[in-house]
Amino acid sequence: IKNEGILSSYKNNKENFIFDLAQVIVEKSLACRLYLQAKYIKIYIDEYQDCDKSMHKFFMYLCDELKIETFIVGDEKQSIYIWRGAYPEAFKSIVGKPNFKKIFMGDNFRSCQQIQNYSNLLCKETRHLYKPISDLNNIIWLTPNEENWASEVLSYIKPDFKTALLRFS
Fold first, then answer.
1. What is the pTM for the complete model shown?
2. By the 8 A CB rule, do 45 and 73 touch?
């Protein structure tokens, strides 16, 4: 391990030596491989979009070489750790593999439809997920002229709906 430079300090802060080290140990130690196969029959990995290349390589080794069933959850559009080396492109490399199955999860229980629509409109790949809503309460952001702001607001108010108007000066 020392000869391979794994224990030396990394100059690039986006690299994670822990998973590189784990990879070398698992590859070189039959006892380690047998232990992992006996201990873990399945691995569940959440927020996979935030894995870096070393993590991805290690997890794929566990799956492909050690045949440990792997369940991955994530959304490549939500990767927030690119600054530290996250590798959201890993999803694309996994989807083409014959031993992986992609399941699209269309229901979002964390956010209301208005927020989902706003988020979906931001990404070209998800614009088709926009769902028109008419029976929900609305939040409307206006920046009307000072002179006619009242008449502009009236055009958005519907008597049967609760509407929040946010006015910024």
1. 0.65
2. yes
- Helix, strand, coil percent values for the chain (each to nearest 5): 40, 10, 45
Name residues whose C-beta falls within 8 Å of residue 90's C-beta, 6 or more positions apart in sequence. Answer: 48, 49, 51, 53, 56
Query: Could you say which of 3.40.50.300, 3.30.70.1060, 3.40.640.10, 3.40.50.10540 is the CATH number of the domain covering 1-105?
Result: 3.40.50.300
| Per-residue pLDDT reduced to its tens digit, 11-60 | 555 666 789 889 999 999 999 999 999 999 999 999 888 888 999 999 99
Domain range list for the chain: 1-105
Is the CB of residue 54 less than 8 Å from the CB of residue 20?
Answer: yes
Contact in structure between 55 and 15 (CB atoms under 8 Å):
no
Residues 6+ apart with CB under 8 A from 16: 52, 54, 55, 85
The answer to whether 120 and 130 have CB atoms below 8 angstroms apart is: yes
